[in-house]
Amino acid sequence: MMKKYTLFTLLTLTATAWLLNTAMAAPASDLEKQYIDKITEWIPGMSDPDVTKRKDPQQALEKMCHEAGAPGKETERAALCKAMMAKANADADTPKLARIWLLRKVEPLGRDEVVADLAALLHDADADIRETARRAMINNPAPAAGATLRAESGKADDGAWKIAMINGLAFRRDGQAVDAIAKLANNQDDAVATAAVCALGDIRTPEAINAVTALLENPRPTLHARIAEAAVKCGEELIAKGAADKAAVIYERLYDKSQPESIRIAGLQGIAAAQGTKALPMLFETLNGGDARMQMVAARSIQAMPGNEITQKLLGQLSTASPQVAELIIDVLGQRGPEAREAVAKLARDAREPAVKDAAVLALAQLGDASAIDALLQIAKSSENKTHRSVALRGYVRLAREQGAPEQRLEALTAAMKLANNTDDKKLIVSAIGDIASAKSLD
Q1: What angle is formed at CA 196 by the lines to CA 195 and CA 198, rounded to 5 degrees?
Q2: I want to staple 207 with a disulfide (CB 3.0 to 4.6 A). Which of 2, 51, 178, 185 is the partner?
Q3: Are the CB atoms for 254 and 267 separated by under 8 Å?
Q4: Mind listing the pLDDT tens digit for each residue in 46-67?
Q5: Alpha carbon distance 15, 60 (integer Å)
Q6: Topology given in CATH for the domain delimited by 306-443
Q7: What is the pLDDT of residues 336-356, one digit of tens each?
């Protein structure tokens, strides 16, 4: 069955094909005029207040942009961009809706040929036009576009507009803007200064990193948190570039005791990321300290470090750890893989310190894998501690309901039922048995 086309669509297809066929033979100036003529025909539709009536002409222009932007059609692309800007300019008498659509189509296509016209529109009387032109300039890869944004950021009187320019330079990661942005980081307007600090953290060139490091020396209280965020980003960039030692210097400043806790947390995480196992003494010192939040950060940082050496050092800490720290260490061990979980199982069976044994049984029950099932069953059978028996039994049920064929799971859960001594544990086991029965009924 033949697809139905509106008259407008048929005319559009015909016009686009004609333009593409004639483009190869036409000089650039003639081609630009042809594009202007066609866009002029579409402007009334693109300006219609009814959004449904704007659809066809907007899509027609979009299709033309797609065709002209194809590889190898640089002449067509430049001519079309010039034509769209000619109709988007303030003196073109084009309605606002159409101007915005034209600028949106220029945004992914425009290069040097549109920079001057976009620069003029940055001062348009209409705020929406200014913003759409700004976005088109930001996404324009031409060096002249970056130069225009840098100049605009310096001369803009309105704070919001200056911030918009700074954000645009940050989006482009414009290294040439660092000096100017670093000066704006000391602007008396906190909003402008904040945008500048954030931009330096986004740009992250060596010069930007130096600027952020300098700001850490004596941070303005209202900017302190943003400077720290920028510093964290700079540290991440240095680590990615193989300069972990330089990153560690930045993170050590953030970890200084004079810093607020939230910033110290970021500093400790950064030190661990930058130094790896070299940071263990500091991490263990923090783990055994008195700040609960910092202890948690240290524990999670150690947890992320691979290797049996780390596991053994964690186990070595248990002999002198407080009950609270022992619980943290065992929780970390329980998430470090089979070797560490074997150590946790041994602690759950043999540890003499009540707090260590409590934490080990809980970690084994909550975090253990199939290798822990026998240890949990043994604890559930023979532990003298009623709570340990219940916790271990629940861990055993968690694993037994997932391991083996339905018959094997049913046998394991039946054995668990014989060990259950309270109503909650029995309910859990009955529920697990019910799940197996329901699954079998679907086979």
Answers
A1: 65
A2: 178
A3: yes
A4: 999 999 999 999 999 999 999 9
A5: 10
A6: Leucine-rich Repeat Variant (1.25.10)
A7: 777 777 788 888 888 777 778
Give 88's pLDDT tier (boundaries 50, 70, 90): very high
pTM assigned to the model: 0.78
Cα separation of 99 and 155, whole Å? Answer: 26
Residue spans of the domains in the chain: they are: 37-43+76-138, 306-443
Amino acid at 421: N
Question: Which residue do the tokens 């009623």 mark?
Answer: 386
CA–CA dist 288, 313 (Å, integer): 14
Tokens of 183: 């000066």
> What CA–CA distance (Å, rounded) separates 21 from 78?
17
What gap in Å lies between CA 215 and CA 218, rounded to an integer? Answer: 6
Looking at residue 5, its pLDDT comes to: 39
Token representation of residue 122? 């940055």
Cα 236 from Cα 267, distance rounded (Å): 12
Quote the longest CA-to-CA distance of the chain.
Answer: 95
Query: Which of these CATH numbers, 1.10.10, 1.25.10, 3.30.160, 1.20.58, describes 37-43+76-138?
Result: 1.25.10
Amino acid sitting at position 241: K
Q: Do domains 37-43+76-138 and 306-443 have the same CATH topology?
A: yes
